[in-house]
Task: inverse folding
């Protein structure tokens, strides 16, 4: 068709990543293959010190850990767009800024775990998201995501669903293991484990 173009598909995977773990890497990989994404951008949330449970590692350290985790994985990249903007991170802003950086020739796919997707009705300006990106929900152990059971106005109501690898790990588990001198081997990339140990995070 004259004038039409196949758009490049880019995944946008936002998170606190405090720290990034193998569950994050596994779900990004599953969505990338399932939807044939050119790449997945891991977008690290800014520091939000006013929140009840602020991140323990700084935004720069969380970004560094994600850089280490993805550096040898083709198709995975990091983005500092939320850190550069600063303040509280709202995904609508993330998507607008990424659109500005990437231009009109990409289609954005927002990747969210089932727990985050179910909470999207409490996100600020979530109603703007459907005009900015397709939402892709990924299964998380212990949670049932059935978008037809959601309210019509729920932001994740029309989302795509990818079951994914169902890896039962969270950043909370990892911080807990480090507090209780448990091992986090196999739960995070070796380079991330080294960075955590060298800097004494979460101890
Ligand atoms: P915390 O335990 O500190 O809340 P987390 O492990 O949920 O952290 P986040 O950085 O808050 O990690 O999550 C970023 C995104 O990744 C969210 O959309 C979340 O739902 C998703 N996610 C994290 N871990 C998993 C997992 N094991 N399976 C599916 N989705 C996940």
Result:
């Amino acid at each position: 068709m004259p004038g039409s173009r196949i758009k490049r598909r880019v995944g946008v995977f936002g998170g606190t990543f405090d720290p990034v773990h193998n569950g994050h890497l596994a779900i990004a990989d599953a969505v990338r293959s399932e939807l044939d994404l050119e790449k997945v951008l891991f977008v690290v949330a800014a520091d939000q010190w006013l929140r009840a449970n602020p991140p323990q590692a700084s935004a720069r350290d969380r970004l560094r850990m994600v850089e280490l985790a993805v550096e040898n994985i083709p198709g995975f990249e990091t983005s500092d767009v939320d850190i550069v903007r600063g303040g509280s991170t709202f995904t609508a802003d993330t998507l607008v800024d990424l659109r500005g950086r990437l231009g009109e020739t990409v289609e954005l796919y927002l990747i969210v775990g089932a727990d985050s997707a179910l909470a999207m009705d409490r996100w600020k300006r979530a109603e703007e998201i459907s005009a900015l990106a397709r939402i892709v929900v990924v299964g998380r152990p212990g949670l049932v995501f059935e978008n037809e059971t959601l309210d019509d106005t729920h932001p994740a109501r029309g989302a795509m669903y990818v079951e994914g690898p169902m890896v039962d790990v969270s950043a909370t588990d990892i911080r807990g293991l480090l507090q209780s001198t448990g091992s986090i081997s196999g739960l995070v990339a070796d380079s991330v484990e080294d960075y955590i140990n060298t800097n004494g995070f979460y101890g």
Q: What stands out?
A: The domain at 2-199 is CATH 3.40.50.620 (Rossmann fold). Residues 22-35 form the longest helix (14 residues).
